[in-house]
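Final report, Chapter 2: Outcomes

The project's central promise was a pipeline that accepts a single protein chain and returns its three-dimensional structure in a standardized token representation, suitable for archiving and comparison. That pipeline is now operational. To close this chapter, we reproduce one record exactly as it appears in the project archive, with the input sequence first and the structure output second.
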Amino acid sequence: MPSSLKITIGILALITLIFLLARFSGGSFSLLLNGLSTKTEPFRSGGTSASVGGVAPYFELSDLGGSRVRLSDLVSVPLIITFWATWQEEGADQIKILDDYTIQHPQGLFKIISINNQEDKSAVMSFIRRGGYNVPVLLDQTGATGKSYGIETLPTSIFIDKNGVIKEIFVGIMSEKMIMDKMEKILR
């Protein structure tokens, strides 16, 4: 048998095997293949990444005071979660805008939480103190929460209704007007 024919048969057998594994392995083989893919999909549905219309992935993180905060503690009213970092200008600017909003609307109809992405607690505390900010900050020091939400760009804000369902994912910086417009849609 010529070697080119052996190679062709081998390739066909491999393709057939991959197809059968993907089709009948209950999805675990597909997850393996997706994990090996170089293509990134920041907010794909399924798995653990956040997607519009899906339930917000659970988290439990420490705040700057050391208290543990769970997502379930927060979702009795609509919620904005903003992922950010002090080293990134847009993320730092977003914290200022969120803080200004919370000062102007102390009895807001929704909660605002910021989750700092993979920075040391002392650096984050220093940034918050220097700016005099009051917006609540949680620490995702390992990046696991950001990963579960599919965060690839900072800042990214997740809009969640009172039932814990993700209504919108916004990548980039938002003005106060944008925040209010997006939350009005959720509050209706």
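Archive annotation: DSSP finds six helices and seven strands in the chain.
This record, like all others produced under the grant, will remain available to the consortium after the project formally closes.
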